[in-house]
C-alpha cells in the first residue's frame, strides 16, 4: 500500500470514528436529565444567578432546596423573600457560620458536615427540582468537606434534579464533574470608585 | 535647588494630591445611591442574576419593574413566578419580539421605543427600588434605541433606584456609564457535550 493510500485509509477510519461519536452525542442529547452547574469566579452574580434559577424553577411548579454553607454570604433579602414560600422552598442556613476569626477548625468541620447532612436529604428527595449549594466551593476549598464524598452524593441524586454550586475557587474536581461552569468576572466595580455596599445590591 | 531636592518636592506634591483624592473618595463612599449594573458576556447567568436581585429587592420590601426587550430571551419560569406578585413586580415583555426573521427594521424600532416608554415610566417612579432592563444591550447594539437618550433617562432616575441592564455586547458607552460591570464567561457548557436545553435551566 502506498503511503498516500495508507493515509487515506487512516483518514477514513478516523472520520468513521468521528461520525460514530457525533451520532452518539446526538442520541445522548435527546436525554433530558438534571444538570450540575457551577458558578465560580471573583465577580458578582454567582449566588444571585442561582437565586434567579430558584425563581425560574418555582415558576415551573417545582420545589427547591437551598443550603447556604456560609452564613451571611448570600443576601438577607433573598433569604427573606424565599422564606415566604415554605411549602415550595426548603431554606437552610448553616449554623453560625465558619469561625474565620476564632480559627476553631474542628467546629467548622462539624458545622459543614451538619449542613451537608441537610444537603444529602435534599439530594435524595425526587420532589425537589433544584438544589442550591451556596458557597459550597468555599467549604470544599478549606477541606471542611471531602470532595469525593460530596460528588458521590451529587451524582447519586434523582435523575431530573438540577444542582447549582456557587463560590469562588471551585476545585478542579468540581469543574470536571460539572455540566456547565460559568465564570463571573469583575470588569468594573462601584466599590473601587468609592461607593459603599448597597442594600439590594450587595446584601 | 538640586535635582534630588526638586524630585522630593514633586514627589511630596504628588502624594498630597493623591491623599486629597483618597479623602474625597472616602467621603463619596458615605453617599448611598442607586447603582447602574451591567451584566454582559457570552456566559450564562446575565438575566438569572438580575432575577436573583429582583428576589433580593422584594425581600427588602421594595417594588421592582422588569422590562424584557426580547420576548422569549428570558426564562418563562421567571416570568410565571414573578407575575404572581402584581402588586410588587411590574412585569413587561416587549410586544411580539424583534423580527429577526422578517427583517422589518422599522417595526423593530417602533417596538423597542414602545418598550422604552414603559421603562421611562418605571425610571421616573421613586416607589420602584429596582428596574431590570433585560436584553437592552441587544436593542442598543442593533441601533433600535439611541444610547445617549437611554443613558439620559437612566441618569435622571430617582436617586436611590438601582438599574440592571443585561445582554451580551454592551456598548462602550454603557460600560462607561455603569457603576458595576460583570462579565459572565462560559467555561464549560453541557450543550457542547450533547445535552439539550433543560426546563428550569435554559428557559
Automatic annotation (TrEMBL), chains A, B:
A Pfam match: Co_AT_N
Matching Gene3D superfamilies: P-loop containing nucleotide triphosphate hydrolases
Keywords, comma-separated and alphabetical: ATP-binding, Cobalamin biosynthesis, Cytoplasm, Nucleotide-binding, Porphyrin biosynthesis, Transferase
Source domain of life: Bacteria
Cross-referenced InterPro entries: CblAdoTrfase_CobA (IPR003724), Co_AT_N_dom (IPR025826), P-loop_NTPase (IPR027417)
Catalytic activity: 2 cob(II)yrinate a,c diamide + reduced [electron-transfer flavoprotein] + 2 ATP = 2 adenosylcob(III)yrinate a,c-diamide + 2 triphosphate + oxidized [electron-transfer flavoprotein] + 3 H(+); 2 cob(II)alamin + reduced [electron-transfer flavoprotein] + 2 ATP = 2 adenosylcob(III)alamin + 2 triphosphate + oxidized [electron-transfer flavoprotein] + 3 H(+)
Localization terms from the record: Cytoplasm
Stretches assigned to the Cob(I)alamin adenosyltransferase N-terminal domain: 1-26
Protein function: Required for both de novo synthesis of the corrin ring for the assimilation of exogenous corrinoids. Participates in the adenosylation of a variety of incomplete and complete corrinoids.
Family label: Belongs to the Cob(I)alamin adenosyltransferase family.
Database matches in PANTHER family: CORRINOID ADENOSYLTRANSFERASE
UniProt-recorded name of the protein: Corrinoid adenosyltransferase
